[in-house]
Specification:
It is an enzyme of class 2 (transferase). It catalyses: (R)-5-phosphomevalonate + ATP = (R)-5-diphosphomevalonate + ADP. This protein is an alpha+beta fold. It has 11 helices and 13 strands. It folds into 2 domains: 267 residues, Ribosomal Protein S5, domain 2, CATH 3.30.230; 151 residues, GHMP kinase, C-terminal domain (Alpha-Beta Plaits), CATH 3.30.70.890. Helix 3 packs across helix 4. The chain starts with a strand and ends in a 9-residue tail after the last strand. Bound molecules: adenosine-5'-triphosphate and (3R)-3-hydroxy-3-methyl-5-(phosphonooxy)pentanoic acid (PMV). The site of (3R)-3-hydroxy-3-methyl-5-(phosphonooxy)pentanoic acid has 13 residues, from helix 7. (3R)-3-hydroxy-3-methyl-5-(phosphonooxy)pentanoic acid (PMV) binds next to helix 7.
Length: 442
Amino acid sequence: MTAVSAPGKVLLAGGYLVLDRAYTGLVFGLSARIHVLVRDRDASSSAESQRPEVVVQSPQFRDASWTYSYQLKTEKGGVDVIQLPGASRNPFVETALGYALTYISSVLLSPINPTSVTILADNDYYSQPSGSSTNSGNSNANGNTHFTDFGVRLQDAHKTGLGSSAALVTALTGAFLTHHLPPSAFSLSTAHGRARLHNLAQAAHCAAQGKVGSGFDVAAAVYGTCVYRRFSPSLLSSLGETGSPGFASRVRKLVDDEDSIWDTQVTKEGVAIPPGTALVMCDVDCGSQTVSMVKSVLAWRTSEPEGSKALWDSLQVSNEVLGRMLAEGRRQEDLEKAFADVRKKIREMGDRSGVPIEPVEQTKLLDALTKGVSGVVGGVVPGAGGYDAVALLVKDDKETLEELNSFLAKWSMEKKENLKLLGAKGELEGARQEPEEIYSGF
Ligand SMILES: Nc1ncnc2c1ncn2[C@@H]1O[C@H](COP(=O)(O)OP(=O)(O)OP(=O)(O)O)[C@@H](O)[C@H]1O
Ligand SMILES: C[C@@](O)(CCOP(=O)(O)O)CC(=O)O
């Protein structure tokens, strides 16, 4: 068995700006991971000898099993993946499989063995139907409480916005490349291997979601905590249609990047969480429409080019100051000021674009948290902002967590909201191969 996990993300600073290569995002990986386990299967049926199959299961959810048959296309079109009748489609699994198998087929000369795949999500990716303040989990039939049984279909689960699809595509791609290719052709532990995983996962994730975002979520899944400057979106336009003649060669060329066309910049040095503190997420459990928020902010940018540029340039400086102060582990007053400065400019961007990036309700919550809970150093509305969540830098001790939990319980009751502190914390490491033992029962 090969197991690879990839972390979730939080964009602490740089939402919207990171869509433009002129700016960067301060991205933190989270301890909540998506794990993908790949095992060889015996292809016993005669039909399978013609078209081998990959059987994928996500056992924490109902009706979450997908079987795909695959076949090499002619004229270097790559590997064609077709879902067999059964559950509804899962575009992220299907596309990531197609891209990974296509890349593998361009490297391996032998046929690709049929496999079974298990997807496991750490509990924080989804709000639990009921229960404690942290997502401690209901045990599965096999008694493993590490990966809770959510008891619902994937489409009915409440996401907490940690970037499940990017972590899934990255872990699945990393697990397939590790499983099928010899270490001389791919290794997750080398810089070259991670760069190829990044390139392939970005291409597959964009194809699956049908749009090219900034890709900070995939970068967090591959590299973990970093300062991220996006790739030029035009890089992906040369790929053409999946399965079209020459598709496999184009995927191989793009992923191996022998011509050094990828201009993504990922800096891990000088990004850190100050000693004695933790980066935590508070789930607000009521969603925002990120896509329409992005559209409106970008429309404002076009309509007010000079004013918006001046504000973004100034916000970029504040974001960099915050990143530097975190990395230097500066005293609480300095950090408080840096958070306040970022928030002020985010509110200005919200006012001027007419988009509730830090809505009044979130302003009240963040102000009350920073003033009312002694261990809270600062916080922001992460990513696109809105009503989804707040990210907080807090003292990493039991008293602060207890105080925070009781503050959130009281606030939820008074405001009739459902605020929950997630168990996930900011973590530096990106995608990694995992030992088999932690998956007992799966
Ligand atoms: N545990 C899982 N098992 C199988 N598929 C999953 C799993 N988690 C996520 N997915 C796939 O990813 C999709 C969710 O992706 P989407 O981009 O909507 O959410 P997200 O990445 O969590 O969002 P956000 O960027 O707001 O955090 C699901 O519909 C499914 O296709
Ligand atoms: C608005 C944007 O910059 C960040 C969105 O972040 P999130 O999905 O809210 O975590 C979009 C992007 O970077 O793709």
